[in-house]
Amino acid sequence: MTLQRYLTRLIGWCVLPLLVLATVLALGHVNDIQEGDRAEARAVARSLASVVDQSLRARIAGLQTLAMSPLADNPARWGELHREAQGFYAGFGSHVALIDGELHPRLYTIVNYGDPLPTFAQQAVQRAVQAALENSSPAVSDPYVGVVSKEASVAIAVPAARQGKAAFAMLSLLPKHQLDYLLDSLVLPAGWRITLLDSRGEPIVQRGGTVPAQFEGAWQAVDRLSAAPWSVQVQIPQAARVQRLRPLAVSLGLVVLGFTAVAVFGGLLASRPLARSVRSLVDPSAARGAPGIAEIGQVRDLLDRARRDLEVREAQLRGVVESATEAIITADASETIVLANPAAARTFGYRVEQLVGMSLERLIPEPYRAHHHKDVEAFGRSAVQSRPVHGRPDVRGLRADGSEFPMEAAISHVRVAGQHLYTVILRDVTERRRAEAELTRMHAELSASHADLQRLIAAQQNVEENERKRIARELHDELQQVLAAIKMDVAAIEREMAIDPRGVAPLVARIDELATSAITSSRRIVNDLRPLLLEELGLVPALQALCAQFARRNGIAASVVVSGRNMPDDAVPGPIAICLYRVAQESLNNVVKHADATRVQLDLIGLDDGGVQMRVADDGRGIGADDRRKPQSFGLRGMRERVRALGGRLRVERRAEGGTAVDVEIPPQRDDAKSPA
Q1: Which uninterrupted H or E stretch holds 327?
Q2: Are residues 128 and 139 in contact, defined by beta-carbon separation less than 8 angstroms?
Q3: Which residues contact 249 (CB under 8 A, 6 or more apart)?
Q4: Phi and psi at residue 399, to the nearest 5°
Q5: Which of 30, 193, 217, 284 is most buried, taking the most CB atoms under 10 A from its CB?
Q6: For the chain, what percent of residues have pLDDT higher than 70?
Q7: In 3D, which of 198, 178, 160 has the Cα closest to residue 95?
Q8: CA dihedral angle for residue 479, residue 482, residue 485, residue 491, rounded to 10 degrees
Q9: Is there a contact between 73 and 86 (Cβ–Cβ < 8 Å)?
Q10: CA distance 377 to 400
């Protein structure tokens, strides 16, 4: 086999993996595109199913409200029920009917109350009502065409439970065009089709391609509804997938073929002069026209080049040794230093000229010298050419000033002209050991902080559970009792209306008082959970209201002083406002619990860089050192973690003039900063 043929085959084998790799990458990219289309189709199906479910559930909830109304139990009050059903029609755009257990309509909003009622002859409507009555659960029918309206609609039937069984059903007829509106908001890629199917698999509404032949064998994503026995189907025809992938496949193929042709052609051009040059080394006749010189001249040039390469390598090695950041020392069999680099001189505190000719033991502390001699002799007799220095917990070095330092060392030996040469590479690890000690200390602090955080989380869960109990108790003791009283007064009004309508006025006034009390209680509970004043007016009014409420409840004077940039004209960002409000709230609670103070001042300062400072200072007895270390001081830990989450700092100090000061500083936040939990 000739050299040129060998090089040609070598080029082919070198290009082949690139072709295989390009093909694999192209197929992978195509698969990623197809998988992305499928994921998008599944997402579109889920989105439409969710939208239709929400629309149906909203109507079912409205019908359930009508079914639970006491007006439905009294035929004499069906006129009022008819007006409420008209409200359902105004909100949802579909009429409502009351159907009894015999499937006869008793009320229908499509006609005026008291007018003759039409019958529901459609089997789909009857089956939906019958299913709702038999199963005591809402039922949704498949589409049907109304006899009067000639429009496709869907029946939604909701049973009305009385004494444990369905007594009648509330029926609503949802026009199909409202379902069409839900699909009109969807934007589909070209060629796709989305269909809402009924329980029989028949299309209810459809958007997208209209040619059935295009969707034979199409990939499809299906998502089922929970509020009705329907499903959503998204179809991607083969033609759409091929049309999207064809430009990519053509471009990738052209790029791969182009690069392959360039590589092969370039390799062939390069192989020919190379083959002639190599052939000229053994075939003088091939030297004519070949690049380079004759065979003898080439050999001579090779020798000259080898000598120059040796000099270059020696200079490179010298440059590496001289510029190395680690100490390099070479000693002979008598442990006399014959070579040292500047890093070694800096490490041991000598000049390079002082190190050369010096005994190696002068760089080793006295207690380690005997062991060092034995170790070097044993290493010289072994067949191992290099190894790290080991046998002691630390390898120690001795500087010119007599100070010792820890180091790492690796030793190697060679035999040149019958003489052993030992080369040691040293690294001063003083700073690393110090960093390791610092890292150990920081790890211990981190572990302690983690333990504190775990205790804080446990305490927070306990506080949350107590808060739930408090809210439940307040809801039961206040709102439920008020609502029960309102219900009793409503019943009393019904009795008075039948006896003496003039006696209704005091009861109505009492209901108004009870409703006002319920609104006040609910507003107080909501404000305790998340102050509405903070969201509506901002941080400064919320803090002023908090201090005013604190002063009223506890008899301790409290004031807010605002200064600095962006205060109070511009709103403080939401995450900072919530954090500062909660810190102020916890600080005031601590004043009540521990400070025995008569006055509290809250200073809010806007910084020039957009950050915020806050200081809560009281004139109480002041925080002590033992108070900070209490295992149950979760309030301070919670404030610190909340401020740290925004990159801020919190300090709690005992004031020189008496009392305690809580200082918070929060830097400006990025746009994507989130509120602390």
Answers
A1: strand 327-332
A2: yes
A3: 26, 30
A4: -85, 170
A5: 193
A6: 73
A7: 178
A8: -70
A9: no
A10: 26
- Check: CB of residue 627 under 8 Å from CB of residue 596: no
Say what the pLDDT of residue 300 is: 46
Return the sign of the alpha-carbon dihedral for residues 518, 519, 524, 530: positive
Written as six digits, the tokens of 125 are 């409507």
Q: What digits encode the pLDDT tens for the residues 660-672?
A: 999 999 998 765 4
* 3-state secondary structure (DSSP) of residue 533: helix
26: left (phi over 0), alpha (psi -120 to 50) or beta: alpha
Cα 467 to Cα 488: distance, rounded to the nearest angstrom: 30
User: Quick one: DSSP state of residue 413?
Assistant: E
660 is written with which tokens?
Answer: 């305690």
DSSP 3-state assignment of 406?
Answer: strand
Q: Which of 118-132, 268-282, 402-416, 545-559 has the highest mean pLDDT?
A: 545-559
The secondary structure of 538-579 as a DSSP string is -HHHHHHHHHHHHHHHH--EEEEEEEETT-SSSPPPHHHHHH
The closest of 328, 354, 323, 321 to 427, measured between CA atoms, is 328
Reduced to 3 states (helix: H, G, I; strand: E, B; else coil), residue 217 is coil
How far apart (Å, rounded) are the C-alpha atoms in residues 210 and 193?
8
Distance of CA 525 to the CA centre of its chain: 32
Q: In this structure, are residues 355 and 336 in contact, taking their beta carbons and an 8 Å threshold?
A: no
Q: Are 545 and 575 in contact (CB under 8 A)?
A: no
Predicted local distance difference test score (pLDDT) of residue 151: 79
Q: How many residues does the chain have?
A: 677
Q: What is the CA radius of gyration of the chain?
A: 44
- The CATH homologous superfamily for domain 324-427 is PAS domain (3.30.450.20)
The secondary element (H helix, E strand) that includes residue 271 is helix 238-279
Query: Residue 150 burial by CB count (10 A; 0-12/13-18/19+): exposed, middle or buried?
Result: exposed
Element (H, E) at 156: strand 152-162
- Judge contact between 69 and 84, C-beta under 8 A: yes
Residue 342 burial (10 A CB sphere; 0-12, 13-18, 19+): middle
3-state secondary structure at position 416: strand
Burial category of 442 from C-beta neighbours within 10 Å (exposed 0-12, middle 13-18, buried 19 and up): exposed
Report yes or no: 453 and 641 within 8 Å, Cβ to Cβ.
Answer: yes
Report the alpha-carbon distance of residue 143 to residue 41 in Å, rounded: 25
Structure tokens at 476: 């039961």
- For residues 559 and 551, what is the distance between their CA atoms, to the nearest angstrom? 9
Q: Are strands 557-564 and 599-606 parallel, antiparallel or unpaired?
A: parallel
The alpha carbon dihedral of 512, 517, 520, 525 has a sign of negative
In the chain, domain spans? 3-39+252-278, 53-180, 324-427, 429-529, 538-677
CATH number of the 538-677 domain: 3.30.565.10
3-state secondary structure of 359: strand
Q: What backbone phi and psi angles, to 5 degrees, belong to 189?
A: -60, 160
Helix axes 3-68, 238-279, angle to 10 degrees: 160
CB neighbour list of residue 48: distance below 8 Å, 6 or more residues apart: 182, 183, 186, 194, 196, 223, 232
Is there a common fold for 53-180 and 324-427? yes
8-state DSSP, 1: -
Over residues 217-249, the pLDDT tens digits come to 778 889 999 888 999 988 888 766 666 666 766
